[in-house]
Give the backbone structure.
Amino acid sequence: QSVLTQPPSVSGAPGQRVTISCTGSSSNIGAGQDVNWYQQVPGTAPKLLIFGKNNRPSGVPDRFSGSKSGTSASLAISRLQPEDEADYYCQSYDNSLSNSYVFGTGTKVTVL
Amino acid sequence: QEQLVQSGAEVKKPGASVKVSCKASGYTFTNYDINWVRQAPGQGLEWMGWMNPNSGKTGYALRFQGRVTITRNTSLNTAYMELSSLRSEDTAFYYCVRLSVDCSGRCHNWFDPWGQGTLVTVSS
């Protein structure tokens, strides 16, 4: 039922670069709404990773970066580390009839 | 530091209601909206609704309207989420989270910080 679609999983070897796509529509990402990203290690609460125009909270390495184009957004993780293995969610706002915050379907990142 | 601390795990029978609390500290409680997000076991994140702690104004996701109520007690810096007519599909972790805002220029908002989560189990 999520309006933002992500790939179920991506994987890469340590040191590699991976990207996660987040596909929305003209009522959310395409309408200019912010896309934020969260990291969730299993068994813990989600943690803010990227917000606004590609900003990182204090403590988040610059290996993480976000971008947006049209109705889609992407999260890139460069120089992949074992501790990056987690679930990642994009989030935006949908100004259609539902007028609600929306999350992506989630992507599991596996470090090989 | 700014944090949200939630109440403990709950076990409820189908048809019952549950009320989860979320206590804010380290910032002015009435300055930022509180939102609630849930996550069923092995599933993704689902937004449920928001509340402005200053005015008490609320907004709910369409699929929860009529079943969810978000309230607050400003003297305790605490928000509450009550979900009624519980069914097994409501078994999930429930998170409160602050909607942080930056309006220097165009306004941007994001969810941070998050509470630690409260597991609600619905079982007969």
